[in-house]
Write a structure and sequence with these properties.
- The protein has 3 domains: 2-33, no CATH class; 46-197, Immunoglobulin-like (Sandwich), CATH 2.60.40; 214-288, Immunoglobulins (Immunoglobulin-like).
- With 290 residues, it is mainly beta.
- The chain has helices at residues 17-33, 174-178, and strands spanning 2-5, 8-11, 46-53, 58-65, 74-84, 90-91, 108-110, 120-128, 151-160, 169-170, 184-187, 190-191, 193-197, 214-217, 224-229, 236-243, 248-255, 260-262, 269-276, 281-288.
- The strands form 5 sheets. Strands 5, 7, 8, 10, 11 and 12 form a 6-stranded antiparallel beta sheet that branches. Strands 6-9-4-3-13 form a 5-stranded mixed beta sheet, with no helix packed on it. A 4-stranded antiparallel beta sheet has the order 17-16-19-20, with no helix packed on it.
- 8% of the residues lie in helices and 40% in strands.
- 31% of the residues are buried.
- The chain is built from 2 helices and 20 strands.
Length: 290
């Protein structure tokens, strides 16, 4: 039945046979939805690394999915390479054996190089995925994935006319960020932008990395915590402190054993500390309590 209250039309199905029908359909829909597979969880973030392979005159771009593997829709990727304005080097379009055309799951395009007058050249690469990475090639995919916590080379950019000594890096400055050229990645339409790395790092195999025997003391911690390795070794490591929302709040190159982290500026809460020595990765939980 219906009644008019002022300018509002109120529909009432109380005590109406249609009510039972609607409730029955709703019950069937809920029951059916319980059989549907749950949406897969996404990596907390995706990092990007740029490696200058001077011997082969290439820039190698690698991605790392943190905590979980990913083979679904890589919705969007944007990154910009910058190098000194004084250098005569130029960057070609590039290509990638990881997910080559005609795949539409990782179709890269590049802008023209620009020189805005701040001391650098810039060129921006963009990918807008239209199919899942893991889909069959015949379906537009490339049958690839980003394994958890492992660097994977996804693109290679030829370097031309390099006089030597040119420094190439992923741009993370005012020009890039103010002109929509800053590093950005979304997975299934959700922002999962991670950290930027320009240090030399080995692209690891897709197999899970071996763990390192490293612990944090004290943990929970107030202002400082120390990385302690049981075998007392002192190999070089890259350390990242990651907040619960996936943001990298601290990163540094250090010695694996005996390194003290100053966490006094961090807010109280739960974090993850990722330690990598180039071939192995270990993630330790860290509680900051005050």
């Amino acid at each position: 039945m219906s009644s008019h209250l002022g300018n509002r039309l109120v529909l009432s199905f109380n005590h109406h046979p249609m009510t039972r029908v609607i409730r029955s359909l709703a019950f069937v829909a809920i029951a059916f939805s319980s059989w549907l597979p749950l949406k897969a969880q996404l990596p907390t973030s995706v990092d990007i690394s740029l490696q200058h392979d001077a011997g082969n005159q290439l820039l190698r771009v690698s991605l790392r999915a943190n905590d979980l593997a990913f083979s679904s829709l890589l919705s969007n990727l944007v990154f910009t390479v910058r190098w000194q304005e004084s250098s005569a080097a130029t960057l070609a379009f590039g290509s990638g054996a990881w997910c080559p055309p005609p795949s539409v799951s990782f179709p890269m395009s590049a802008s023209a190089a620009v020189t805005p007058g701040n001391g650098y050249h810039y060129r921006t690469w963009t990918a807008i995925g239209l199919a899942s990475l893991g889909d069959l090639v015949d379906d537009g995919g490339c049958e690839q994935s980003l394994p958890a916590d492992a660097w994977v080379e996804v693109y290679a950019i030829p370097v031309n006319n390099d006089p030597g000594g040119t420094i190439f890096e992923i741009a993370d400055d005012a020009y890039a960020n103010d002109n929509n050229r800053g590093y950005f990645v979304s997975l299934e339409g959700i922002d999962r932008t991670g950290g930027i790395f320009s240090f030399s790092t080995e692209v690891m195999e897709a197999a899970p990395a071996q763990a390192m025997d490293v612990i944090l003391q004290p943990n929970p911690a107030n202002a400082f915590t120390t990385l302690v390795c049981s075998d007392a070794t002192s190999s070089a490591a890259w350390i990242e402190v990651i907040a619960s929302d996936g943001r990298t709040v601290m990163s540094l190159s250090a010695w694996r054993s005996g390194t003290t982290l100053d966490i006094s500026a961090l807010e109280t809460g739960a974090y993850r500390v990722r330690i990598s020595d180039g071939t192995r990765i270990q993630v330790q939980p860290l509680i900051v309590a005050r």
